[in-house]
Design goal:
Radius of gyration: 14 Å
Number of strands: 9
Strand content: 25-35%
Strand order of the largest sheet: 3-4-8-7-6-5
CATH architecture: Beta Complex
Number of helices: 2
Largest sheet: 6 strands, antiparallel
Order of helices and strands: HHEEEEEEEEE
Shape: globular
């Protein structure tokens, strides 16, 4: 069971940059091919920028060509939660951090094996922690 974290809007605003707040707390999306992690290839763990929960491993990251960091699986099944995102002319599945309810991105059923999923995540929702004793680029 994941313990939830709650903060007020003002607490989140003080803790996050403007783009991190817009994306993670207000559900916005950064422009494709602009985020700091979309071409990132270092070995380590991608954490929630809001609460630090470990979300994705670099071992499941791949280049989907979409312009956002893409992963074929989370670190474990209970770190994410999913909500139906109904937009005009589009319905998709939103991905959120189970611990703090941060908006991360969306998941699509067009990813590689073994899951067939593509977790399309905003760089602004992530913080990267490199594995110690590895060469990072």
């Amino acid at each position: 069971m994941v313990e939830s974290i709650f903060k007020t809007r003002d607490e989140w605003r003080r803790r996050l940059t403007a783009i991190q707040y817009r994306v993670a707390r207000q559900g916005s999306t950064e422009k494709p091919f602009t985020g700091r992690y979309w071409r990132h290839k270092a070995h380590g763990v991608y954490r929630c920028v809001c609460c630090g929960a470990e979300l994705f491993s670099s071992k499941t990251k791949y280049d989907s060509g979409a312009g956002w960091p893409s992963f074929w699986a989370p670190i474990c099944d209970d770190v994410l939660k999913f909500e139906l995102d109904r937009q005009p002319f589009m319905t998709r599945t939103e991905v959120r951090c189970r611990r703090c309810d941060a908006h991360l991105g969306h998941v699509f059923a067009d990813g590689p094996k073994p899951t067939g999923l593509r977790y399309c995540v905003n760089s602004a929702s992530l913080d990267f922690q490199p594995h110690p004793h590895t060469h990072n680029s």
